[in-house]
UniProtKB/TrEMBL annotation:
It is found in: Cell membrane; Cytoplasm, Cytosol; Endosome membrane; Golgi apparatus, trans-Golgi network membrane. GO terms for cellular component: cytosol; endosome membrane; Golgi apparatus; nuclear outer membrane; plasma membrane. Keywords: Cell membrane, Cytoplasm, Endosome, Golgi apparatus, Lipid transport, Lipid-binding, Membrane, Nucleus, Transport. It is a peripheral membrane protein. The keyword Cytoplasm applies. It holds the Pfam family GLTP. The keyword Amino-acid biosynthesis does not apply. One of its GO terms (biological process) is negative regulation of interleukin-1 beta production. It comes from Pelodiscus sinensis (Chinese softshell turtle). The gene is CPTP. The lineage of its organism: Eukaryota, Metazoa, Chordata, Craniata, Vertebrata. This is Ceramide-1-phosphate transfer protein. GO terms for molecular function: ceramide 1-phosphate binding; ceramide 1-phosphate transfer activity. It catalyses: N-(9Z-octadecenoyl)-sphing-4-enine-1-phosphate(in) = N-(9Z-octadecenoyl)-sphing-4-enine-1-phosphate(out); N-(hexadecanoyl)-sphing-4-enine-1-phosphate(in) = N-(hexadecanoyl)-sphing-4-enine-1-phosphate(out). Belongs to the GLTP family. It comes from the Eukaryota.
Length: 214
């Protein structure tokens, strides 16, 4: 795999998700997006079949970055402040996408759901047998999470894309953190942070009844 700015490194992604968590259980938006951007670089190394998958995530990241670059940037510092600000100011479409089709809350929710997939997928890789099929781990994770929110046509296309994934050990070695065993150890250290970020967001969205935003 090529070195340089565009090379994927699992460590960077995991460090970014680790940096998301604040002392008051707040989830910081900038490192969350940085983590996602690292993942997108990774998806792009997997070939063009994955570009349709990454394209939507890129769009969502861009929407949230635009909020972070706007006059209201402080309101979007953490997921908690974003939810509070958008709800207090009627900036979220709760029943049907209409006046605020790209609210921070609904956009973040899509990445949040995808993070669950990622978490389950990485956990499957971590605990899988040496020669297990990454495509199987990936589709099992997908079917147990994100697939529930996708129409048939997207589920079909995603399943086809998964077939091209390499075997577990090649995959782990491609993560640029050393041997497959070292990659597994790093996943073991970092996955609890991704889980925490996911759980806190899930709890916050549940509290505000935002888990089904259109
Ligand atoms: C190898 C594992 C990598 C995990 C990366 C996860 C990326 C997830 C992106 C999946 C996107 C599939 C195609 C787009 C679907 C959109 O309709 C959907 N977006 C997501 C992120 O699920 C819903 O967004 P929408 O249509 O309500 O704006």
């Amino acid at each position: 795999m090529a070195d340089g700015a565009d090379a994927f490194c699992l460590r960077e992604v995991l460090v970014a998700f680790t940096a998301c968590l604040g002392e008051q259980r707040e989830v910081r938006v900038d490192p969350y997006l940085a983590g996602w951007k690292g993942l997108i670089r990774f998806l792009n190394t997997l070939g063009t079949v994955f570009s349709f998958i990454s394209k939507d995530a890129v769009t969502k990241i861009q929407i949230l970055e635009n909020y972070r670059n706007s006059d209201q940037r402080e309101k979007y510092l953490t997921v908690q402040s974003m939810v509070e600000y958008e709800l207090a100011n009627g900036l979220v479409d709760l029943k049907k996408r209409s006046e605020h089709p790209d609210s921070g809350c609904r956009t973040f929710l899509r990445l949040h759901r995808a993070l669950r997939w990622l978490q389950m997928f990485l956990e499957g890789l971590r605990t899988g047998e040496e020669d297990s099929k990454t495509s199987v781990i990936c589709s099992e994770a997908y079917n147990a999470s994100l697939a529930n929110y996708h129409p048939w046509i997207i589920r079909k296309a995603a399943t086809v894309a998964f077939y091209v994934l390499p075997t577990r050990n090649t995959f782990l070695e491609n993560m640029n953190v050393g041997t497959a065993d070292e990659a597994v150890a790093m996943l073991g250290d970092a996955l609890p942070f991704i889980c925490k970020v996911y759980d806190i967001t899930e709890e916050l969205y549940a509290q505000h009844k935002l888990l089904d935003l259109p």
